Task: structure prediction
Amino acid sequence: MTTQQRDTDFAHVRVGTTIGFEKPTDSNITANKPYKVTRIDEDGDGWFNDDNGYFQCFSAAYRWTKWRGYIISQPDEAPKILAMLPSFRSEAVNSDRVLRDVIAERERQKSVEGWTSDHDDAHASGEMASAAAAYAFSAGANPSEANLLGGAPPVLWPWDRDWWKPTTPRRDAVKAAALLLAEIERLDRAAIRQMKGSGV
Result:
């Protein structure tokens, strides 16, 4: 089965990647035909040879999105791509929604709960990762496991019970992802401080 990455995945393109375009406006480019990337320049723009052998430049800001570019993982099955695009797009739209929900929850944690960068940096023992794991467990818990907990947080929960607020599996999964994002941000800040402190 042909697999592909949607047009916003321009960053995944590398030299040798096989790409396609759904709606090219250049007459030298055939829609949904596999083209191999031959060069990525210092500005991050990618290049490939069109049907006449001329170099074509596609950038994330212009042709890649305007032409609805996508990555073809199995070029031999390229003719099937067009038929797959509608369902593929709906999956991509749903992925965008998921990311927006996670980012919105992260912002809510900051603005409503007061979990700012300074607050998070004070939890340097992996508490946010543990909290994320607890919500992830809640999201995947079956009814018997949930009943066994009786509303109590899992043993991984690092804070007071009053802060444990599970709701629906999806909402708990979003909270878990946002907390994990916060932990990654904290680790990155800690690494930067360590580098500055060591004079690197």
